[in-house]
Specification:
Length: 278
């Protein structure tokens, strides 16, 4: 989850990224942050503790934890596919994806420049949610096949969990609030409708801040009711959104007053654009 930010950066070399622990997919380097391990642990704990015992009762803790780790791997894969969706559409509209960064709170795809038109900005923003929707459809088909074949209920529950994860990523990212994909799309559309990109950005910023504090409130209520899993996830998402808005929005607002074309015509520096999205 991140707003569009322009910052100087050299074109990364695949060999250097691999030496630093990165991997590549579809010729795009992927940099996983150490916090991805925390995401895997939280996801595995959530499903092993709250979902799988109800879906497939009578199994041991090891079976639930092992299946939870598999689903957590599916979460990371879903985040990568989300960003690959951004990268594919970015290439289609003429941008060059530099690399993908992954963390506990989602991913960021770095491009060489901003989209040239509001239509391109919307297409780029919505590509990630569409990718997750396709993953949900495929996982749903797998779930139906497993159920019809009388397979292990735990395996069917794992496939259903992947469906839920991807639908969740899709729906959350469609919220018209920065730094989510829906916020980028809403800012582009409002900029055209209002003819004031700065006001459109301020509206998306305000919704983003409200979303962050709403998630913190959900965490407090969930904690009071004893639902630890929801409390932890809501708190992490809420504080992540709020912290990101505090760090990124001042720069974004200052840039919104600069005409885009003259900035992009400057050839004396390379720039990288961050595009989220999970």
């Amino acid at each position: 989850m991140a707003s569009s930010v322009v910052r100087p950066a050299p074109l990364p070399r695949i060999g250097a990224l691999r030496a630093a622990g990165g991997v590549s997919t579809l010729a795009i380097a992927v940099r996983p942050d150490i916090s991805c391990l925390l995401a895997i642990g939280l996801c595995a704990w959530t499903f092993a503790d709250a979902v799988f015992p109800a879906a497939a009762p009578g199994r041991g803790l090891v079976a639930y934890v092992a299946t939870g780790i598999v689903v957590a791997g599916g979460l990371i894969t879903s985040l990568v596919l989300h960003e690959v969706g951004h990268a594919i559409v970015g290439r289609w509209i003429g941008l060059t994806p530099r690399h993908i960064s992954l963390s506990l709170f989602g991913g960021v795809t770095f491009f060489d420049r901003e989209p040239g038109t509001p239509g391109q900005a919307c297409a780029l923003a919505l590509a990630g949610p569409v990718a997750n929707l396709l993953v949900a459809v495929v996982a749903g088909i797998v779930h139906v096949v497993l159920v019809d074949a009388g397979a292990d209920p735990l395996a069917a529950a794992a496939a259903a969990s992947i469906v839920v994860i991807n639908l969740g990523i899709t729906l959350v990212n469609l919220i018209p609030a920065l730094p989510l994909d829906g916020g980028h799309a809403a800012r582009a559309v409002l900029g055209v409708v209002l003819r004031r990109p700065d006001i459109a950005g301020a509206i998306a910023d305000a919704i983003g801040r409200a979303l962050g504090w709403t998630m913190v409130g959900v965490a407090v209520l969930a904690s009071a009711s004893g639902d630890a899993a929801i409390a932890v996830w809501a708190a992490l998402i809420g504080f992540a959104v709020h912290d990101h808005m505090q760090r990124v929005v001042p720069m974004t607002r200052s840039m919104s007053r600069v005409p885009l074309a003259p900035v992009l015509r400057r050839d004396d520096a390379r720039r990288v654009v961050r595009r989220p999205a999970a």
